[in-house]
Structures are given as structure tokens and as C-alpha cells.
């Protein structure tokens, strides 16, 4: 006898999958491969020395806050500091509007837990962040997709999709979107916020990259526009993963005090509270004004890398290949001519020691076989140029 | 218009509650209250200086492993170190059997996610750990309870409950149980492992306190007994929360490689991976052999505190009040005469500046109104004696 495990699994496991991309990344980890496949920030840009100094201080000065069990909604002083920071970013907030999360991935999971019954629809961009689909899948979500162009999702398309499918929630990444790098225009932002209010469909605004703007004019977040009109229709998510370090697993939600309470209830059963040491480190980073200079430094580095990638693409890629020119973030998006297949291309690319992420997994409802995502985050410009040169050769041969 | 949030929540929110105990703890936080209500280890026993030194070293020597995104199943070197540690504790394991979790609470959540469809039954002890109920409630669990005595749950009662209710899973805390402090005898352990194999019902063995034995003979874990017979019917959970520091939010599961893969899939959507810095700190603690001396130190302290509490109870409590004398862990369990109500008693106790946790919330199916949990973890012996003296007065008055 014994346990027949495969007879015991819950039904939801059929909806869940491991990340295709993580499997692809394993292939791309060989040291001689120029990988533009990663979704990670560059570890060489982490403020290691500052974190070491701050960490030493918080363990000396507030060992209890850094090491003991804490409150589910987060360290009170950090929630207050983040409320001030959000207010300075145009999203007026008090501590009661802030919930500390164990990374944005947890915020997506808990949003699914709070709002999604099996079969509920979530409106998502096409393509969208694969990790969000993984989180929502566990709750049996189905998806309504709205295509993206260079100015983000079209408000008319969003309104039509809501009329037709009545989604429970919209999940949008308006700024330097993952995977496309696209940013929603100001006019569309205003109209999308109106649509949320008009139809009573809340927006989960995921903004992991907003601080990483290296070109163009800053735009208000959807949450800022909504709050300026007295609305509370947006759950805004941001994170320390792209500015401090992702290994800290620290993000936060800004939402109404009522929704914050639901997050707290959901989080109690999920992991009780987020890592306490990471919270005191982040708090001290904010208190000492270290975040601003750090963000400035990484912005400049990523700008140079994006420039190198865009210039190399313009030089080497065939003119039939389209690509985005993001004003921030870590990614750009490539559209190959119709009929080409990025997965086949990846196999050829691997032979030439260059890697990327095929775009199809980012499409909640299929398609996108001729698209791919390139990250410019983790390599110096000269390596980026060499990677694009190799990839251009692979594309040209595939088109021949 | 705007979002009518309360029309949007998922059905599962009706099954979920915030911890009653956390609300009670808020009351008990006044500095002049002698609180035996907490479930926390004593922050004064955390190895702060060792953590500071280790933290400084890992940030210098392995900044990438400490700060970058990591693998969902955990830092490979930590999984290997824990596999060795588990093997030394009688549970033969390789890295593929270890999944690093963001605290045991997450392991309980993910176990619910993997195994529980709405309406599935979980067999639990009566009383049991409230946090486990919170995790399972999110998946619509119902409960089958088996009463505890001083030797843990009775195997015959477990077998009968399985025959009758066919639970998906057993959730057991065989060693220094929370809330009772009870430990399952060796004979019962063997028979419960047999029952799991016979009926094909797996056991989730939660063992947060097993390392904190300060009296009596060590007993093999259920997982050790099962593995010695070639079984893979147990998912074993342990944690750094009671030995290093709970703020690190670091625990681990030991299970078959196949079940480990399901945990990894579930964890990807839940929080991607556990805090990386906490993982490198824990790894270095194990590598340097610092865990053993730390555990020895806290064991001795907790033994002295338990002794103080048991002796004071024997001296001050009315003889009608029963209590457990645990051989480890943080808690003992008090049973008042039938008809008494611990919640009313708590209100009287608050007036006398002493606090405890009423036992009823630990009963998945109601009852236990005349029970309460006392923690001896966080106070020196003389404060414990004073707390018990005050509580004895409150009990005597309530009985009068």
C-alpha cells in the first residue's frame, strides 16, 4: 500500500503550469551564450555596499524589528515611509492604504485569492506578464484580452471587452510593460481610469518598472489619476525588486483601507508576514535617502544599454522586423514577419550562442508565435551589440 | 459610479477569518501586562551577533546569491545542507526532496493549494494549530477531528475517522504540539505511520518545535519512521523560526521528489521564491556549525522557564485545574473545570494585568471553552511565577 499521490491532487493543478520561460532560461545559462532572455535586473547594479552597511546597522539598532515575528500588513514605520513616498509620487496615501508583500508575485496571488472564483474573467493586455497568468490560473481565472500598440491598450477596446465579458478585474502594466516595453499614453490613461469608474471594474495596476524611466516625460500612474479625482478604483503595485534587489522579495500594494484589510486576511494564511530583515533594510534605505541616487544610477546604465540595443537592431536586423523603443524598464519587443516562428528561431539562435524569450507564452489566448522579448538589462553595450549581430544573422537565414 | 468592492470578493473570503488570537494579542501588548498569550519565541534569545557577522560575510562573499532572483525550490546549497541535516535527524533526504518555504505558514498554504478542493476533508487534532486552519480554510476545507490525550492522538480514533470520513490529508503536530504541548508516544507514532500507508492518506507532519526538546528521550519523527520502512507517505515540515529567528520567514518541506515538484509549481505563482538573503544566512549558519550551540542555549533557557511555570501552577492553581507538562516547545495547556469559560476569564485576567490565549479557537469543530494556552517562552522565571500567581487568583475567584 502507500499513498497514491497522483489521485490526491486538487483540480486547480490542472490549470497551473510551471513557467515555460524558466525552462528556457536554464538552456540560456551556459556561460558562452549571450542571453537576452532573462527578466532579471543586473546584479552588478545592486547597491551591495549600502545594503551591507544598512543591514549591519539595523541588526544592531533594531534587532527585534529585523528578526522577530511582525504584523501581517508590514512594519508600521515602513508602511508610513512608503505612504509618504507614494504621496510624493502623486498617489496620496496613509499607512492604512499600504500592505507590504513578499514580492509583487505575492500581490498577484493574493489579488486572485481575494477576487477570483473559478471561471471569473480577468481583462489582460495581449501580450501580458506571464507570472500574473500563473498566479490567476491557480484560482481558475479565464482571460479577456485587449491588444497593445505603441501607446498601450486602446480604451475603446477595453470598454468593448468589459461590455461583452464583464471581467471581475483589469490587470494592466501601463508603464514600460512586460513583455513589450510599451507605455500607455496620458490620454489613454485618463480614459481607462474613467472606464474603471464607469463600469465599476477595478484595475490592478502593476508598476514594477515605473521608477526606471530613462527617456521621455514622466506620466502619472493610473492610481494617481484616479486618486486626483477622488476615486479608489485602483490597486497599485510597486516593488523594491528592480531598484534595490529582488532577492529581498519586497513589494507593496496601495489601495483603499477596506481592500487592504482583505489583503491582510489573505496574507495571514499565505505567509503570515513578509521578511522582517528586508523590511528594516528597505526602511533605512528610504530614511537615509539612498533610494533616489541608486535609481538614478541604474537608470543611466539601462539607458546606455537600451541605446546600444536599439542602434544595433537598426543596423543589423532586416527592415521587415519591427521592434519597440521603450522609454524605461528592461525589455524591448520584436515582431518578426508573419509566419515566422520564434521557438524555431531560438533553436537556431542557441547554435549561434545567443538567446531570447519567445513571445507566445505571454499571450493569454494564444498567438504571438512571431514575437520575442529581448532584455538589455544585464550586459554591457559591446556584448549587446554582438548578441544582436548574432541574432540578426539567425533571423536573416530563417527569412531566406 | 466607481467600484463597489464588496460585490467583487471571491466566495472563499466567506470561509476565511483573521486570527482571533492576533486580536487578543493586541490587548496583551500593554507593557504592564504579564502576557503568556504570545506564540512567539523570545527575541532576547535570537543569535543577533552571529546573524550580523554571517550577514556581513554573505553580502561580501555571495552578494548575487543573497540579493538576486533565485530558484523557486530554494538556494541549491541550502537545499543540500538541509538534506544532510535531515539525514542526520533520521529522515534520509537528497536536495531534490527539499523545498525551501517562506515560513511554515506558506508550506501549509501550498499544501492546501496542491491537495484541497472545496469540501475536501482534512483530519486534524483536537485542538490544533489555528494558523493551519486559516491556510486550509482558503481552499474550502472541512475538518475531521481526533481528540488528543497526553500521548497525542489515538491511532484507533484516527483509523475510525478515516474509515468514516475519507480525508484527503492528515495534519498532525506530533511533537510538543501547538497548542497543547502534548507529544505522541513512540508506539502511537509507529501505528499512525502504518495507518497512513494502509489507507493511502498522507500525513502533513508539522514539526516547528522538535529541536526544542529539553526533557525526556528524543523520539523519531513520523517521517523518519516512514522512510525507515521505505515509505514516502509523509510531508515533513520544519523551520528556522524557533531556532534562528522567525523574521527570516524560512522553513522547509521534506517530501518525495514528485510532491516537491508540485510545491514548486504552486510556489512559483505564490511568491516566486523565498527571501534570498535569509537563505544565505541560514546556509552559513549550518556550514559554520552555529545552529547546534544556538539550539542548546535556547533549550536550556526554555527548560528553566517551563520548570518555573509548572512549579508555580502546582503551588498556586486550584487542584481541579489540569495542565500538561511538555518536554519541549513553548506552550502548556490548561483545562479548567467543566462549565468555566476562558474568554470570560481573560477579561478578568486583563484587570489583574495577566494574559493568555483562550483555547476555543484551536478547536476546528467548536468546544474547548474551558481550555487555555500558556506560553512560558518570553519571560524570566520570576515573572512567570508572578503571572501564574495572578492568574491563579483570577481562576480561584471565578470558581468561587
Describe the structure.
The structure is a homodimer of 400-residue chains. With 400 residues, chain A is α/β, with parallel strands linked by helices. The first copy, chain A, folds into 2 domains: 138 residues, Aspartate Aminotransferase, domain 1, CATH 3.90.1150; 241 residues, Type I PLP-dependent aspartate aminotransferase-like (Major domain) (Aspartate Aminotransferase, domain 2, 3-Layer(aba) Sandwich). Chain A is 44% helix and 14% strand. Chain A is built from 14 helices and 14 strands. In chain A, the strands form 3 sheets. Chain A has an 8-stranded mixed beta sheet, with helices on both faces. In chain A, strands 10-11-14-13 form a 4-stranded antiparallel beta sheet. In chain A, helix 5 crosses helix 10 and helix 12 packs parallel to helix 14. The longest helix of chain A is centred in the C-terminal third of the chain and has 26 residues.
Sequence of secondary-structure elements of chain A: HEHHHEHEHEEHEHEHEEHHHEEHEEEH
Q: What's the domain count of chain A?
A: 2
Number of strands of chain A: 14
Give the CATH class of the largest domain in chain A: Alpha Beta
- Rg calculated over all Cα atoms of chain A: 21 Å
User: Largest beta sheet of chain A: what is the strand line-up?
Assistant: 2-9-8-7-6-3-4-5
- Give the averaged pLDDT of chain A, no decimals: 95
CATH topology of the largest domain in chain A: Aspartate Aminotransferase, domain 2
Amino acid at each position: 500500500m502507500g499513498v497514491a499521490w497522483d489521485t490526491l491532487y486538487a483540480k486547480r493543478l490542472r490549470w497551473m503550469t510551471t513557467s515555460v520561460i524558466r525552462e528556457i532560461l536554464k538552456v540560456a545559462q551556459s556561460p558562452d551564450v549571450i542571453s537576452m532572455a532573462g527578466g532579471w535586473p543586473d546584479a552588478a547594479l545592486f547597491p551591495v555596499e549600502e545594503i551591507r552597511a544598512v543591514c549591519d546597522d539595523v541588526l544592531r539598532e533594531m534587532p527585534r524589528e529585523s528578526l522577530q515575528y511582525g504584523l501581517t500588513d508590514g512594519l508600521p514605520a515602513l508602511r508610513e515611509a512608503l505612504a509618504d513616498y507614494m504621496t510624493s509620487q502623486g498617489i496620496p496615501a496613509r499607512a492604512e492604504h499600504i500592505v507590504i508583500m513578499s514580492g509583487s508575485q505575492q500581490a498577484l496571488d493574493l489579488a486572485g485569492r481575494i477576487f477570483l472564483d473559478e471561471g471569473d474573467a480577468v481583462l489582460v493586455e495581449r501580450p501580458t506578464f506571464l507570472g500574473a497568468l500563473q498566479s490567476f490560473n491557480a484560482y481558475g481565472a479565464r482571460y479577456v484580452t485587449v491588444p497593445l500598440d505603441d501607446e498601450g491598450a486602446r480604451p475603446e477596446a477595453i470598454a468593448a471587452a468589459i461590455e461583452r465579458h464583464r471581467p471581475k478585474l483589469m490587470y494592466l502594466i501601463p508603464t514600460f510593460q512586460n513583455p513589450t516595453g510599451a507605455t500607455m499614453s496620458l490620454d489613454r490613461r485618463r480614459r481607462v481610469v474613467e472606464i474603471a469608474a464607469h463600469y465599476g471594474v477595478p484595475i490592478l495596476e502593476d508598476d514594477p518598472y515605473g521608477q526606471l524611466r530613462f527617456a521621455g516625460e514622466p506620466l502619472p500612474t493610473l492610481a494617481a489619476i484616479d486618486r486626483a479625482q477622488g476615486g479608489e478604483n485602483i490597486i497599485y503595485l510597486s516593488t523594491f525588486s528592480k531598484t534595490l534587489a529582488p532577492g529581498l522579495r519586497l513589494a507593496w500594494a496601495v489601495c483603499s483601507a477596506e481592500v487592504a484589510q482583505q489583503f491582510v486576511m489573505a496574507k495571514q494564511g499565505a505567509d503570515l508576514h513578509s521578511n522582517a530583515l528586508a523590511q528594516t533594510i528597505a526602511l533605512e534605505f528610504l530614511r537615509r535617502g539612498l533610494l533616489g541616487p541608486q535609481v538614478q544610477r541604474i537608470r543611466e546604465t539601462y539607458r546606455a544599454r537600451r541605446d546600444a540595443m536599439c542602434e544595433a537592431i537598426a543596423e543589423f536586423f532586416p527592415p521587415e522586423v519591427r521592434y519597440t523603443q521603450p522609454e524605461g524598464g528592461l525589455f524591448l519587443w520584436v515582431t518578426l514577419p508573419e509566419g515566422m516562428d520564434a521557438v524555431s528561431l531560438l533553436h537556431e539562435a542557441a547554435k549561434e550562442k545567443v538567446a531570447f524569450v519567445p513571445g507566445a507564452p505571454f499571450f493569454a489566448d494564444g498567438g504571438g508565435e512571431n514575437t520575442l522579448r529581448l532584455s538589455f538589462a544585464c550586459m554591457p553595450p559591446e556584448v549587446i551589440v554582438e548578441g544582436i549581430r548574432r541574432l540578426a544573422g539567425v533571423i536573416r537565414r530563417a527569412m531566406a
